[in-house]
Write a structure and sequence with these properties.
The chain is mainly β. It has one domain (about 1-254). The chain is about 10% helix and about 45% strand. The strands form three sheets. Strands 3, 4, 6, 7, 9, 10, 12, 15, 16 and 17 form a ten-stranded mixed beta sheet that branches. Strands 5-8-11-13-14 form a five-stranded mixed beta sheet, with no helix packed on it. A hairpin with a 5-residue loop joins strand 1 (about 1-5) and strand 2 (about 10).
Amino acid sequence: MCADHTGQTRIADLRQSGATKLVFPQTYRTDSEVILVNTAGGITGGDAFDLDLAVHSGATLTLTTQAAERAYRAQPDEVGQVAAHVHVSNGVTFNWLPQELILFEGSALNRRLQIDLETGANLLMSEALVFGRAAMHETLHDITFQDRLLITRNGVPLYLDGLNLEGDAAQKLARAATANGAKAMASVVLVRDDAAANLDAVRAALPATGGASMIAEDVLVIRFLASDSFELRRTLMPLLARLSPTPLPTAWRL
């Protein structure tokens, strides 16, 4: 992706195959949105999804998903693999805003996200997790989930995060020092010159189960727990609307 001579963000090169599809809705603005669509309807053991994305030349791009992603029950000894690598150039504004990932009982998934920033690149990143389907009173007693996130700037690690859940996740999440029984969680990272100016307002908007900190002069990190996906969205959507330089994607509001 890159901006043309008028400032409109456009596709520079695109190649896609398999169940991963990218859809570019018309925004009628100079920025662009891309919706990541999994035509398989979810992820199960043995699946492998890869995304490589580069955003250049003053572009403003928001990536989201068409709906909540689902990690389905996997067959024994099969683990799904999801990997994304994004390069964000100087002067680019990039928003990584997928909707939540729902882990089903019996799911097995390894997920990796790496975002490489150049000096002067702006980033708003959100990742949300839901532990089981609340409407079905699902409890996660047997899952495998490994999640890794790395954000670098000029090759130097800026933010690293990881989560391992294996076996009886419900028992682990019930511990007071872990999640105190919460069924959903979200992490948000803002890398922008005005990040610190948002700290007080963000803290005021968070529930008692959340927190926000500046880990560098231009890096704001937010994390909070929620009782279910509804409560998660009730906190997350206003936060993202405040922090995003562009309107939230329409898919978030459907």
